[in-house]
Design goal:
40% of the residues are buried. The chain has 629 residues and is an alpha+beta fold. The chain is globular and about 70 Å long. It starts with 6 loop residues before the first helix and ends in a 13-residue tail after the last strand. The chain has eleven helices and 35 strands. Among the domains are: 154 residues, Alpha/Beta hydrolase fold, catalytic domain (Rossmann fold, 3-Layer(aba) Sandwich), CATH 3.40.50; 37 residues, no CATH class. This is Peptidase S9 prolyl oligopeptidase catalytic domain-containing protein. GO terms for molecular function: serine-type endopeptidase activity.
């Protein structure tokens, strides 16, 4: 929500400027560092972009691929032989313009598709790269754009039809994508969906590359899923109502934990994360078109399952069974659903006790896995795992310059609120702070410390355990860092996430204040040295806290937080507007709704701010205009 300009570096510069402007000596001591600058982790190391990104394995397991800068500093595609110890990466694209944005391996040997725009114009084109001849590496445009802002995006692939792809082109309507089946051998395409209604992200394709499900926002804030009618031409669909019949309707309270995942190998059964009649959602399977026949494969205990796209589920590339799922409360826990692979996971979990392994990619034969280790003590590490040898080999760190640095430990705790809710939070103590000798959990410092409350955005996002640059940076500068997954945060079930609806600048703020008071009562935070900061919704909440509880914080920082809920929602359209009306708990189209939003908009209560506050917003931010910031 909102644009962040010159994010990390500029934030530090503004923080220093804020320090000079604070009149109260106590607040000034709060911002000042208590440690030698030579001991600090340089900001450029913490906030620099990882040199290698988008790591993947080729389907045959031969190559490790990633995006990295060329000698000219332009992001290009590189390969490295995955099984050869000490193998050196080599460049296979040589773009000197805006670089390669993303890429995918296809199931056709030695062929990849690349996504690219021109000078950052976000008019994406799709290129096909053949690496069979390393001396003749020439990406070919899959679909020549014809006009205006026409763009082409990668859609889907299938191991069953290795020479074909589904691509998406907005060639008839700028806001919606038609689907085409593209043959990489004949270089021909055939339209399979003419679309003026459905979002690409809400489409589900089966293993024969046929469109089997779409979805759209419901007027009540829920979601409606559709399947093709029995009379529809599956190879030549439109978005017209005659081609679709309702599959299932998801209520607003269930939509955050209800989503289709993938088809089984025979395309007759469909996996879901299923929210109805469950707080956390369950892993379900049912015959296509018959959700009333759900069978439940896994039921989480405390936190929701991670999404497939976030490495939280592993699906076998050939037999399409779900191998494992991850449940996340304070930290990820992996549950292996197929006994064949329990030994592999046990080995990976024992290999690095201070990190959590995620299987982010596999070879087609499932014998080579790409592993990411996530930890609060070091940046992400990449490993190659050979299932035949039961052996993992270190590849590289995402930020090797930070290896060996002493950083804060991120501890998950649960804090009770004034109305009885249990709110999951994280506390990170400065790594050099002396601890209380009576504290067996290493959570209480010998003396209360200055603290920064770091509020996440969304609100339906969440903080999670790991190497978080902002957390590491603040703790390294001798601040306790409190991160609160207040009501409205995702990941803890529908009661928790829906509990934030209608509670912007009300109970959401109460949750954060209650967490702050808890740290004071426990002797963790010095009540006279507490700051609050956040981005997007986190910035909105920080400003509200400075207005509604002006004596609780000594200063605050708002980055791109909306100041006026009325203008924020008025600028939205369609499903997004309906979603935010549900979040905020009021309809901007009614007088009562506008009064509700007015009473919660920071722009109307600036006179209540008593302490220094920095407000940062992009000059062209469409949601936080300069006049409001």
């Amino acid at each position: 929500m909102g644009m962040i300009v010159s994010t990390k570096k500029r934030l530090i510069d503004h923080l220093r400027h804020l320090n000079r402007s604070i009149e109260a000596g106590r607040a000034q001591r709060m911002i000042a560092n208590d440690i030698s600058s030579s001991d600090l982790i340089p900001r450029k190391l913490l906030f620099s972009t990882a040199e290698r990104s988008s790591l993947k394995l080729s389907p045959d397991g031969k190559y490790l691929s990633f995006l990295a800068p060329s000698a000219k500093g332009v992001k290009n595609l590189w390969l490295q032989e995955s099984a050869v110890e000490g193998a050196k990466p080599f460049q296979v694209t040589f773009d000197d313009g805006s670089g390669i944005i993303s890429y995918e391996w296809t199931y056709l040997p030695n062929k990849l598709v690349l996504s690219q725009d021109t000078d950052g114009d976000e008019i994406f084109k799709l290129l096909l790269l053949d690496i069979s001849d390393m001396n003749n590496l020439k990406p070919v445009n899959i679909n020549e754009q014809q006009k205006g802002r026409e763009m082409t995006q990668f859609g889907f692939k299938s191991i069953r039809l290795p020479n074909k792809l589904v691509i998406a082109v907005n060639d008839e309507n700028a806001n919606y994508f038609n689907l085409y089946e593209y043959d990489m051998l004949t270089k021909t395409k055939r339209r399979t969906l003419q679309n003026t209604r459905f979002e690409l992200a809400d489409m589900l394709i089966d293993n024969n590359l046929q469109l089997r499900m779409v979805a759209e926002e419901a007027e009540d804030g829920g979601k409606v899923y559709y399947r093709p009618t029995d009379t529809a031409d599956i190879a030549n669909l439109t978005s017209n109502a005659k081609d679709w019949v309702v599959y299932t309707k998801v209520l607003p309270e269930d939509r955050e934990i209800t989503t289709p995942i993938a088809f089984t190998a025979d395309d007759n059964m469909l996996y879901w994360v299923w929210g109805p009649n469950s707080d956390l959602g369950r892993l379900a399977i049912h015959p296509f078109g018959k959700p009333e026949e759900n069978q439940y494969l896994f039921t989480p205990k405390k936190g929701q399952m991670r999404a497939l796209s976030a490495g939280g589920m592993l699906i076998h590339p050939k037999d399409k069974t779900i191998v494992s799922v991850n449940e996340l409360f304070h930290k990820d826990e992996t549950y292996v659903l197929n006994d064949t692979f329990k030994g592999d996971y046990f080995y990976l979990q024992q290999l690095k006790s201070d990190g959590i392994p995620f299987v982010t990619d596999t070879s087609e034969d499932f014998l080579t896995w790409l592993i990411e280790y996530s930890s609060d003590q070091y940046p992400i590490e990449y490993w190659r795992y050979d299932r035949r040898l039961k052996q993992a080999t270190f590849l590289f760190s995402s930020k090797p310059e930070l290896k060996g640095r002493t950083v804060a430990k991120m501890r998950g705790i649960t804090i009770p609120t004034r109305d009885g809710l249990q709110v999951p939070c994280y506390i990170s103590l400065p790594p050099r702070v002396p601890l209380s000798p009576s504290d067996k959990e290493s959570l209480t410092p010998a003396q209360p410390q200055k603290m920064v409350v770091l509020v996440h955005g969304g609100p339906n996002e969440r903080d999670e355990w790991g190497f978080m640059p902002h957390t590491v940076w603040l703790a390294d500068r001798n601040y306790v860092v409190l991160q609160c997954n207040y009501r409205g945060s995702a990941g803890y079930g529908k009661k928790h996430v829906n509990g934030g609806n209608g509670q912007w600048a009300r109970k959401i703020n109460d949750d954060i204040i209650d967490a702050v008071d808890w740290t004071i009562d426990k002797g963790i935070a010095d009540s006279a040295q507490i700051a609050i900061m956040g981005t997007s919704f986190g910035g909105f909440t920080a400003i509200n806290a400075l207005e509604s509880t002006p004596d609780k914080f000594q200063c605050g920082i708002d980055i791109s937080g909306p100041m006026n809920l009325i203008t924020l929602v008025e600028k939205m359209e369609g499903g997004q507007q309906r979603q935010f009306i549900n979040f905020i708990g009021a309809d901007v189209r009614t007088e009562a709704g506008r009064e509700f939003m007015k009473a919660r908009s920071p722009v109307n209560f600036a006179h209540q701010v008593k302490k220094p506050v920095m407000v940062m917003s992009g000059g062209n931010d469409p949601r936080v205009p300069r006049s409001e910031a």
